[in-house]
From TrEMBL:
It comes from the Bacteria. This is Uncharacterized protein. It comes from Portibacter lacus.
């Protein structure tokens, strides 16, 4: 049994005999050097994040305010139109087009 195991190990080790050595692509070394020379990414500190958050909050609040103003002006326009629409509906309902 020990001989079978040793034979198997020797067969596995000798199975690579005659094969060629792997070669990396010619650009690989240059890519590795570029990666090493590339500066590290800049880490934003907390004050930068707080400024960004403050600006984002101001933009969101401004958008909410603008949407509220637009919807209120449209609602007031609709209330004026709805009263005249009810008058027009009464006029139209008097017509009997299909009878």
């Amino acid at each position: 049994m020990k001989n079978d195991k040793e034979k198997w190990v020797n067969d596995v080790l000798n199975s690579m005999e005659g094969s060629r050595r792997a070669k990396p692509s010619p650009e690989l070394f240059d890519q590795i050097l570029q990666e090493i020379d590339r500066p590290e990414t800049q880490v934003l500190t907390m004050p930068h994040w707080s400024r960004i958050a403050a600006v984002a909050a101001l933009l969101i609040m401004g958008n909410v305010f603008a949407v509220q103003q637009i919807s209120q002006s449209r609602y007031s326009d609709l209330s004026e139109v709805s009263s005249s629409d009810s008058d027009n509906y009464m006029l139209v309902s008097d017509y009997k087009i299909y009878e």
